[in-house]
Amino acid sequence: MVNQEDPRVLRTRQLIRAAFRDLLFRKGFDTITIKDIAQQATINRATFYAHFEDKYALLEEITEEAFHEMIPEQVKSAGEFTDEICSQLILATHGYIVDFYRICRMSSNSMATLVDKKIKKMLQQTIESIFLKGGTYPGAERYYIEIMAAMTGSAIYGAALYWLNVEDKDRVDMLADLVRPYVMNGLGLDRKGEEYR
């Protein structure tokens, strides 16, 4: 087992991730082999397998890492789910999807499915964390909060993905203005992030 804190291990993982990103841009996911990644990263296949089970595990890590980097600090530390936090999540999700589709060739159904699933899950976890910190639904069972976070994340993700093909797709402010009221009303939250009585 490799020591994840060792600077050499961190550097090797960074080389692997950089090689994979470059290959995604040039070749597309389905045609990339472990041999391609290893050659691009100037490592051997055994070294790759010491760090990642396969290219799917590598894709999952890159997806997660990029998502966490795009979420604004204000959202990560939010104590309640307000209009502003909702707008930031909508815009960050849309930005992430645009970047991902622009950088990577999303011609692979397996890649698109994996990325979609991972983003939805991370979005749900982010929203759920905010709900739990702020006591958005005091006294609610955990499963209720999880369901509300899943529905909210799906709505945000679905709208952000759909916006890629809209005529006014460059008007992301319009995207936030359209989606935010739907999400906030669906959650039963007023403009200050407090439950309607």
Summarize the structure.
The protein is built from 9 helices and no strands. By secondary structure, the protein is mainly α.
Describe the overall structure:
The chain is mainly alpha-helical and 197 residues long. The chain folds into two domains: 7-52, Homeodomain-like (Arc Repressor Mutant, subunit A, Orthogonal Bundle); 61-187, Tetracycline Repressor, domain 2. Helix content is 71%, strand content 0%. The protein is built from nine helices and no strands. Helix 6 (83-103) crosses helix 8 (142-162), helix 6 packs across helix 9 and helix 7 (109-134) packs across helix 8. The longest helix is centred in the middle third of the chain and has 26 residues, at 109-134. The protein is globular, with a radius of gyration of 19 Å. The N and C termini lie far apart (54 Å). 29% of the residues are buried. Mean pLDDT is 84; it is low at 190-197.
